[in-house]
Write a structure and sequence with these properties.
The complex is a heterodimer. By secondary structure, chain A is an all-beta fold. In chain A, about 0% of the residues lie in helices and about 50% in strands. In chain A, a hairpin with a 2-residue loop joins strand 5 and strand 6. The N and C termini of chain A lie far apart (about 35 Å). Chain B has no helices and 11 strands. Chain B is about 0% helix and about 55% strand. By secondary structure, chain B is an all-beta fold. Classes of the chains: A mainly beta, B mainly beta.
Chain lengths: ~120, ~120
C-alpha cells in the first residue's frame, strides 16, 4: 500500500540553526500538508500546498517557515532559525484531491529537538 | 472559526466493554468531521470521516461515529474493546475557508484497555 514517508525520523539541532524536514508524499497525490504536535499537545495545522503554491497557512507558519516541492517527489519544510519552542513532532500529509472529497494520509513524523 | 472539544483526555475501559469517545465541534458552516488514531511512535491513521449523506459512518477496526447536528457532536463508539485499540484518538474538523484545506484537531483522548 502506498504511504507517505518522512526523513529523518529524529532531528536534533541547536537553537538558531536551519533545519529541513523532508517528506515523500504518495505519488499521485496533488495536495500536501504539514502539521506539528508539541509534546502533550494537540496536532496543529501549519500549511497546505497545491499547484506549487501555499493554499492555506496558520498563524504558526510565520516567516521562519517555508515549504517547497523541489522536484516531483519531495515536499520539504524549512525552519530558518530554530527556536526552542519549535521542538515538536512534525507530520507531513498528502491527499489526491481536496480534503473534503478525499482523505489525508499522514507520514510517521519527524521528531525535531531544538537544544 | 472552527474548533473541536474532546471530553476526557484519558479513558479506560475493560476488554470487551463499550468504547465511547466524545467529540463536540464548532463550525459556522457545515463541517467535515474526522476521527484519527495514533499508535505509539506512529503517524495518524484515519479511522472514519463524515462529509455529507448518512450521518452514521462506519470506519476501520469496528469503529463508528454519528454526526448529530443538533448536538454538534461526533462521538466515536465501538461495541467491544480489544486490547489492540489502546491508542490515542483525535477528533478533527474541516470547514471551508478557501477549500477545506485546514484541519483542526482536538487535543486527543488516550484510550486504555484493561484486560
Amino acid at each position: 500500500e502506498p504511504e507517505v514517508t518522512q526523513t529523518p525520523s529524529h532531528q536534533v539541532t541547536q537553537m538558531g540553526q536551519e533545519v529541513i524536514l523532508r517528506c515523500v508524499p504518495i505519488s499521485n497525490h496533488l495536495y500536501f500538508y504539514w502539521y506539528r504536535q508539541i509534546l502533550g499537545q494537540k496536532v496543529e495545522f501549519l500549511v497546505s500546498f497545491y499547484n506549487n503554491e501555499i493554499s492555506e497557512k496558520s498563524e504558526i507558519f510565520d516567516d521562519q517557515f517555508s515549504v517547497e516541492r523541489p522536484d516531483g517527489s519531495n515536499f520539504t519544510l524549512k525552519i530558518r532559525s530554530t527556536k526552542l519552542e519549535d521542538s515538536a513532532m512534525y507530520f507531513c500529509a498528502s491527499s489526491e484531491q481536496e480534503l473534503g472529497t478525499d482523505t489525508q494520509y499522514f507520514g510517521p513524523g519527524t521528531r525535531l529537538t531544538v537544544l | 472559526a472552527q474548533s473541536v472539544t474532546q471530553l476526557g483526555s484519558h479513558v479506560s475501559v475493560s476488554e470487551g466493554a463499550l468504547v465511547l469517545l466524545r467529540c463536540n465541534y464548532s463550525s459556522s458552516v457545515p463541517p467535515y468531521l474526522f476521527w484519527y488514531v495514533q499508535y505509539p511512535n506512529q503517524g495518524l491513521q484515519l479511522l472514519l470521516k463524515y462529509t455529507t449523506g448518512a450521518t452514521l459512518v462506519k470506519g476501520i477496526n469496528g469503529f463508528e461515529a454519528e454526526f448529530k447536528k443538533s448536538e454538534t457532536s461526533f462521538h466515536l463508539t465501538k461495541p467491544s474493546a480489544h486490547m489492540s485499540d489502546a491508542a490515542e484518538y483525535f477528533c478533527a474538523v474541516s470547514a471551508p475557508s478557501g477549500g477545506y484545506q485546514k484541519v483542526t484537531f482536538g487535543i486527543g483522548t488516550k484510550l486504555q484497555v484493561i484486560p
